[in-house]
Design brief:
170 residues, alpha+beta, BirA Bifunctional Protein, domain 2, globular
Amino acid sequence: MDKSITLFKILEYISFKFIQWYIPLKPSSQRYFFFFQRYDSPVLESEALYVRKAGEEVTDQLYNFVDKGGRSVALRPEMTPSLARMVMAKRNTLALPLKWFSLPQCWRYERMTRGRRREHYQWNMDVWGVPGPEAEVELLAAAVTFFKKVGLTSEDIGIKVGVSERKEER
């Protein structure tokens, strides 16, 4: 990639001026869940956002099309790229740590299997700006608390935790 392309040019390229985000810039008592603020992003995103994350082959798994303005767009298959774009675009105005959650509707064009449909809702809880495992512990505690509150036990669900090396530990 040409080093003269700045982060802001990339953000401008992969987002649209007509799409609005819901970014929690100030506290709102009605949008909290276990001390996490609700956020949302558009269901329609630039296809380039997903290609940038996963490579060109991801287009086979997207509901994508060219809109009337000639832009290649896709229905969001997940929230991570949208969240990263939102945080990077507003990074100078957001106070860390960020503790956000969303329950987005997502779509993937792939072979349906048991428990995996083309349209699904995805529960996201994200923490930015907390070094170390504290964020993961908080996320797990919130998930377990939620499951208990809705009457689910270890008989109903299981939680598996994977550990990977952090870049700085290699």
